Amino acid sequence: MTYLSARSLHPAAPWSPLPRHGGQEAETISIGLLRHHTKNALQRILAEVSKVRGLEETRDGHRVMAELERRVMLSAALSNALFGLTHAPGGMEDRLRSVCEATVELMADPDQILRLEVVVEGECPAALRGTVLRAAHEMVGNAVKHGMHARLLGHIRIRLTSDAAWTGLAVEDDGWGYAGARDGGEGLGLLRALAALHEGTTTLQRIQDGTRATMDLPHGPQPLPMG
Fold it and tell me: Histidine kinase/HSP90-like ATPase domain location, by residue (predicted)?
């Protein structure tokens, strides 16, 4: 098992489920700007591709244009599922399912058949939902990118559980396993940073028939180890 983050809470530091720096309003503005610039960039890509002479006159050209437009729309839908920027977000289970489905569609090859299973147990605290959704997006994306590379069929299982003290997210796939950088790369580094915002932990491990990625987030301060 590879531990991707570790608990580092100073005994005198007050615990909070929210990030220590920056308010909710500033985060919303930053996300809005990011989405705006991303949308503009994707629209520009579509415009530039459409200028290629003769592209729309061939069957392959039509296919490329349609697939590119589909993925641009999926990217916008994924932003809405993650952040609820253009409409009020729904319940946690619906948002989690929407994020995972959009991520699979965005990352998978058109000919792949990937079965998605989403299980939610308990009530995830509101302060942790954004982190859980972003983590699920990254974990499912890794499962498709690495585990399902060059595979026609696959199964990805997402499980979110919450009890009185902890919220846990687990993503399992039956693919090849993680094949990225030894230190986890940029994506897994972001997972470490997300978990650290709430004094949580993340792990990545190879299981018998695939790979499991997890994130565990506390609902409050945890007792320091004895000794």
Answer: 121-195
The DSSP H or E segment spanning 170 is strand 166-173
**Which residues, 6+ apart, have CB-to-CB distance to 174 below 8 Å?**
147, 154, 155, 209, 210
pLDDT of 5 reads 44
Name the superfamily (CATH) of residues 100-227.
Histidine kinase-like ATPase, C-terminal domain (3.30.565.10)
Distance from C-alpha of 43 to C-alpha of 47, rounded to nearest angstrom? 6
Q: What is the pTM of this model?
A: 0.71
Under a CB-based contact definition with an 8 Å cutoff, are residues 138 and 185 in contact?
no
Strand runs labelled E in 15-89? none
**Band of the pLDDT at 29, cuts 50, 70, 90?**
low
Domain ranges of the chain: 25-88, 100-227
Side by side, which strands form the sheet with 153-162? 2-3, 201-207, 210-218, 166-173, 153-162, 113-121
Strands 113-121 and 153-162: parallel
Q: What is the pLDDT of residues 48-101, one digit of tens each?
A: 777 777 776 778 877 777 777 777 777 777 776 676 655 556 789 999 998 999
Element housing 159 (H / E):
strand 153-162
